[in-house]
Structure formats: structure tokens, C-alpha cells
Amino acid sequence: MINFFKKPKEKIFNLKNLDRDTLLYHVLPKLMMEILQKYFRLQVEGIENIPKRGAAIITPNHSGYSGFDALLLAHTINTKVNRIPRVLTHHFWFLTKTTALPAQKMGFTEATFENGINALKKNNLILIFPEGEYGNFKPSAQMYQLQEFKRGFVRMALTTQSPIVPAIVIGAEETHINLSQLKFTKFLKGTVLPLPLNVIPLPVKWKIKFLPPIHLPYKPDAVEDSELVHEIAQEIQEQMQEALTEEVMKRGSKFF
Prior knowledge:
globular; 16% strand; 8 helices; alpha/beta; two-stranded antiparallel sheet; seven-stranded mixed sheet; 37% helix
């Protein structure tokens, strides 16, 4: 006779039985993300704007220099939509095997046009920051001021006919304070790095808001029209800046 009132045995999570890769690249990152979500008291809005299937380009603002925004965005999409976005990130992650392996395990991909197109053609979500390092490493004196958008994400959207889902992140700016932006002109020409004030993140409340998807009404050959591409990128930047400013104005205390 089956006892329907008998409680099922709980799964016991035994760290001793886990191999190193599973521990380093699956268990620990997931645990860290759960801790960060609670630490930042993360609030999420507009998750219904993320397509449940098919290709799409998610374009958040970039801030806080630490890269926590990329990690939390990817984790949020994974847990709430059950999709793993391909995060297009700075090439510095891929300069050595030491950094490239964990980056790849976390779903990071070097931010090139070709990598973005390949991922979209496979019906993946991609997460790309149009401001690049200039947004991530801007001084905190310029917080919540979007830097000029690069146009690669627009070309990707036109080429693959994929929708663009803008996203705004509030809180990362105050979590890590950046005193200045270091620009190298001699040995590392074109490289931009931050001058951080704090390494330990401040317990600022975070909010991630996904805006309605944008379906561009142009055919793939419009990618050759550089003036149109620039205009689209600029218009999306203005829409995101307006939404970002509105959210910052209406939020309450940063810490409580």
C-alpha cells in the first residue's frame, strides 16, 4: 500500500561528490548570484518583454566598472525566462586561458560582430552593452548619463531581423564608485580603465527594467545605410536615457 502522506526524501547536496569544474563554474557562480540578488534587494520589471524563444538583442546601460550588471542580467534572464543569454564582453576576458575558460563557462563571448551574428542565427538571446567600456568605466560624476552608443547592435538587428530589447539598470552606478577614467595613448592605445574608490560593493538597492522590444521596420540591406544605422542607435539611446532618468527620479532611498 502506498503511503501518500509520506514525505519524499530531500536531495542532499554533497560538495564532496562534485568535480572541480561543476563547483567552480556552476555551483559557486549560481550561489554568488543568489547572494548578490539578496544583497542588492534586486527588483525586476518588464521580464515579459524578453522573448521566450527566438533571437533577440538585449541592450542595457553599462555601469559600476565591476561587471556585476552583466552577471546579474544574465542570471535574471536565466532564472525567470529559462534562457541562457550569450553575453558579448570585452576582449580582455579572452587574452589568456586563465580568464577565457571561466568567461566561456559563464556564457561570455568576445564582443565581435561575427560572434553576435552567429549567436542570433542560432536563435539565441545576446546581451550587448552599446556604450562599451566607456559606459562601464565612466567616472561616477557622470552617473546615469549614457555614453555614445556604438552601432554594432543595430547592424546585428538589421542583418538577422532580430528585435532589440532595451534594458536599464539602476543601482550599479553607486555600488562601485569610479573616481576617473584612465585612457592609454602609448602602450595600450585606445584602452580605457577605471580608477576605483571601493572594491567591496556598497549595499545599494538595484532595479532592472526591461523595456518593450523594438522591431526595426527595415530589410537586411539597410545595414549598408550608415546614416540610418546611426540614427536608429541615437534614437534608442535617447529612449533609454529618458527611461533611465525617469526611474532614477522616482526611486526612493538608495540604501533602504
